[in-house]
Amino acid sequence: MQLVNFSATNYRSITAAHRIAFSNVTVLIGKNNEGKSNLLRALEAAMQLLRQHALAEPGRIRRMHFESTDSYVW
Questions:
Q1: How confident is the prediction along the chain (74 residues), in pLDDT tens digits per residue?
Q2: Fewer Cβ in 10 A, N or C end of the chain?
């Protein structure tokens, strides 16, 4: 599976970041305190929740919990 775009809304300092396109190499450029790290944290949160969902038993309702690691290692 390949991530082709991502959007985040109301996460930390991000009010709206709609359809950020990804390719094999994606560079985030911006001034300090513009939200680049928060965008990566939002992506990390989404990836962790997807991982938990994939590992859940089929047909079983499960509460998912996100715990930030700030590692960006997927």
A1: 788 898 888 888 888 878 888 888 889 898 998 888 888 888 888 888 888 878 877 766 556 555 665 655 55
A2: N
Spacing of C-alpha 2 from chain mean position: 14
**Both tokens assigned to 36:** 């680049």
Q: Say what the pLDDT of residue 32 is.
A: 92
Give the CB-side neighbour count of residue 11, counting CA atoms within 13 A.
19
Sign of the four-CA dihedral 23, 5, 41, 55: negative
Strand bridging mode 14-21 / 5-11: antiparallel
Rounded-to-integer distance, Cα 44 and Cα 68, Å: 8
